[in-house]
Design goal:
Blueprint (H helix, E strand, L loop, with lengths): L12 H20 L19 H13 L15 E2 L2 E5 L9 H4 L4 E4 L7 E5 L9 H20 L3 E5 L1 H5 L4 H5 L5 H16 L2 E4 L3 E3 L6 H8 L6 E3 L6 E4 L1 H13 L9 H4 L6 E3 L5 E3 L2 H7 L1 H8 L4 H23 L3 E4 L12 H11 L5 E2 L10 E6 L3 H8 L7 H7 L4 H6 L11 E4 L6 H8 L39 H27 L7 H6 L5 H17 L1 H32 L1 H6 L9
Parallel strand pairs: 2-3, 4-5, 4-6, 8-10, 12-13, 12-14, 14-15
Antiparallel strand pairs: 1-2, 6-9, 7-11, 8-9
Helix pairs in contact: 4-13, 4-18, 7-9, 11-12, 12-13, 15-19
Length: about 600
């Protein structure tokens, strides 16, 4: 048998395998890689982007992404007060404000809640002429404004000028009404001019917790029907402008209006919807005072003692507002004291506020952690990271190396939120400054906080008055050891030096100067070299960058308090024409006592 000839027999065996595999791959590419002319192999292959189509698609996706702004949006209203600056945005829950504001010094705050207007009517022509009555009426009106403001409303005082702008004013003027009914109609005419809202007698004040059902409904600002409230007589009404004008027209057309003393009696049945389930507003009407406070009623009924009776009403109403607040927080007052071994001097202003609020009826504690309890009122003094670092490490001069190697990050917020209990509502009053102005505190709580306590704690009045307050809280477990007088004095010195450093660095950071940016620079005087002063400023920046969460908390609290003061200041400017601001209200402005 003849031997078959193999062309690869002349090649080594390994090379034969390589040549065979190569020939097989080339055959596959030649026969399987050729595309069909009628494109029936796989119609989806043509839809897969490649080459230029793939590059164009990538650019399209990038172009559709949201663009990051390169500058802060235009601010239509003032967003700064002193050294505090803020920006309002719905993205305020972002962990870091600078991610939205693009400004390390500007805090990000939630949009402020709109305050529904609550109106009252005061006719200066009917007010009494004696000084005692004028001052008492002014205090009553100030109490009314302060109580409604604290509950989230915008109090507005109306006068005859608003009533004259109502189209029904001329019709009312042609009627010969009783003085009491004429005042009632002027009040409604002024309310009708303003439109939808709340009409309140200035002796009707909110006296309930913030989440009361009636107050919650009133804060919504939507009143579908004209409503009055059972038991409050003519003390409180809510409704829309059309319903208000219809009620005024119905009262004018009533044939018996000349003998009536209230618009409720002058209008037909069905004009008002009557709400009988409410307990959020107290009205100190003539009938209520007559039944509950006969001593005051007797003085008000006698023309010779009316000034004395009026003077007794402001402290009475203020004490009731204070007691209502105390009953809301039945568990007492907690003054937050994280890191208790080093923060005694920081919380001293908060302790004073708590003692004034307690009025000997509420326990005061200083827990090291924040507990979310709805019946516990918590006051927290939020320090700047520089201040806290100085106190914790007993250092008045620090550098970058010390901060990074010897200090912990965000010690205050971590210590305060170590244990969160409950999910209910809790009032967490953040006090960004060492102490708030007394007037700011009154408008925050809705009543005048007792002040000027007697040193010995004794009361000179027959009944314990607001000058009596409890002693400072005793140290408890978890509060740390009690500091000696020398240690407390040294802590006060460190606190003062840290605050001085922060205030000077704030001023210099704005003006671009170099004087007074740090404790080392202060000791050396203005003649220090510029490098040393800038280094002191750099220490603060390093501390803020090292404690991002504590810094964000401090900025938020400072800006939140500043915005609240700006909001109230703007409102008082609007009311200044009639009341002369907060001080003017106490100087005797106000109308006659309205039963």
């Amino acid at each position: 048998m003849a031997t078959r000839w193999n062309p690869c027999s002349y090649l080594p065996r390994r090379l034969q395998i390589v040549v065979s595999l190569t020939a097989f791959v080339l055959a596959c590419i030649l026969f399987l890689g050729t595309s069909s002319s009628d494109h029936t192999v796989d119609p989806y292959l043509d839809r897969v982007p490649y080459g230029p189509r793939l590059q164009a698609g990538a650019h399209h996706v990038v172009d559709t992404l949201p663009q990051i702004p390169h500058e802060l949006p235009h601010l239509d209203t003032p967003h700064s007060s002193g050294e505090a600056r803020w920006y309002t945005d719905f993205k305020w829950r972002n962990p870091f404000s600078s991610a939205v504001t693009l400004d390390e010094e500007r805090a990000l705050l939630p949009p402020p809640r709109e305050r529904p207007a609550v109106y009252t009517y005061v006719d200066s022509a009917t007010r009494r002429k004696d000084d005692v009555s004028q001052r008492a009426e002014g205090e009553l009106l100030h109490i009314w404004r302060r109580a409604w403001w604290a509950q989230g409303f915008k109090p507005v005082v109306l006068s005859r000028a608003e009533a004259m702008n109502n189209p029904h004013y001329r019709a009312v003027q042609t009627l010969e009404l009783e003085p009491e009914m004429e005042t009632e109609m002027m009040r409604w005419l002024a309310w009708g001019t303003m439109g939808t809202g709340i009409l309140s007698n200035w002796l009707a004040v909110p006296m309930a917790e913030h989440e009361d059902a009636l107050l919650t409904f009133l804060r919504r600002g939507e009143y579908p029907t004209l409503t009055r409230y059972e038991g409050l007589e003519n003390g409180l009404f809510v409704g829309g402008k059309e319903d208000i004008q219809k009620a005024i027209k119905a009262a004018i057309d009533a044939p018996t209006i000349k003998s009536m003393k209230s618009i409720i009696d002058a209008t037909p049945d069905g004009t008002f919807e009557i709400d009988s389930k409410h307990s959020g507003v107290a009205f100190y009407s003539a009938s209520a005072i007559r039944s509950l406070y006969p001593v005051i009623s007797q003085k008000l009924d006698d023309q010779d003692t009316v000034p004395e009776g009026l003077a007794m009403l402001p402290p009475l109403i203020n004490s009731h507002l204070h007691m209502t607040w105390q009953n809301t927080f039945s568990s007492g007052i907690a003054v937050l004291k994280p890191l208790p071994e080093h923060t005694t001097s920081i919380i001293e202003p908060a302790i004073d506020i708590a003692r004034n609020l307690s009025h000997s009826h509420m326990p005061i504690t200083t827990p090291p952690i924040f507990r979310n309890i709805s019946t516990l009122f918590t006051i927290a003094t939020v320090p700047h990271p520089y201040t806290l670092t100085s106190l914790v490490h007993n250092q008045d001069v620090m550098d970058t190396r010390f901060i990074r190697r010897e200090t912990k990050r965000d010690p205050w917020i971590l210590a305060a939120t170590k244990e969160l209990l409950g999910t209910g509502r809790s009032s967490f009053a953040r006090l960004g400054n060492p102490a708030l102005a007394e007037e700011d505190l009154d408008f925050h709580f809705g009543f005048q906080i007792p002040r000027d306590p007697m040193p010995d704690g004794k009361s000179e009045t027959p009944v314990p008055g607001p000058e009596r307050r409890p002693p400072p809280p005793k140290p408890e477990w978890g509060d740390g050891r009690e500091l000696s007088p020398e240690e407390l004095h040294h802590e006060h010195w460190l606190l003062a030096e840290a605050r001085r450093t922060l205030s000077r660095s704030d001023r210099t950071g704005k003006k671009g100067g170099i004087a007074g940016l740090g404790i080392a620079a202060v000791r050396g005087g203005v003649g220090r070299k510029k490098e040393e002063v800038l280094q002191a400023k750099q220490v603060r920046d390093v501390i803020e960058a090292w404690n991002l969460a504590d810094t964000e908390t401090w900025k938020f609290v400072r800006a939140f308090e500043a915005r609240r003061r700006v909001e109230r200041g703007r409102w008082e400017e609007e009311e200044e024409g009639f009341l002369g601001g907060a001080d003017g209200a106490r100087d005797g402005w106000g109308g006659g006592w309205i039963g």
